[in-house]
Amino acid sequence: MAERFFGRSSNRRGTQTDGLFASCPWGHEGNTALFCYECHEELLHNPVLLPEDILRFAEVVRCRGLNESKKEGSRFKLAGRVKLLHEAIAKGLQLLEEEKKDAASEPRVRLWTRRKQRD
């Protein structure tokens, strides 16, 4: 979890800012994980969000009432958008897992070939 979500900075120790969350909504505050350099730098820091992905997400943001025409003093809606993005990723992963299970349970077709009989 990014320390900045809680008003802390891992590279500026002792600096406190207004965090998005008082505590981690998912119960993972303080947890760390180890990733290879490529996954950390290329995948996690640079997710692929296409223009149509942003438009679709913006529509869901509007439907949930988390959009802002002007920035308010509160960061409540921003925190809601962070939670919503996590929800979208979690639901997408769940769908992919279900598709994998469905594919594994489908009957497999075996191709049988006959060997040529030798004279």
Please describe what this structure looks like.
- This protein is an all-alpha fold and 119 residues long.
- The protein has two domains: 1-46, no CATH class; 49-101.
- It has helices at 37-44, 51-63, 76-105.
- The longest helix is centred in the last third of the chain and has 30 residues, at 76-105.
- The termini are far apart.
- The mean pLDDT is 87.
What is the fold's blueprint, element by element?
Elements: H1 37-44, H2 51-63, H3 76-105
Question: What overall geometry do the principal axes of the alpha carbons give?
Answer: elongated
Question: pLDDT average, as an integer?
Answer: 87
Strand content: under 5%
Q: What is the oligomer described by this structure?
A: single chain
Order of SSEs: HHH
Count of DSSP E strands? 0
Quote the distance from N terminus to C terminus: 71 Å
Number of helices: 3
Question: Could you list the spans in which at least 5 consecutive residues all have pLDDT below 50?
Answer: none
Provide tags for this entry:
single chain, about 120 residues, mainly alpha, about 45% helix, elongated
Write a concise synopsis of the structure shown.
The protein is 43% helix and 0% strand. With 119 residues, it is an all-alpha fold.
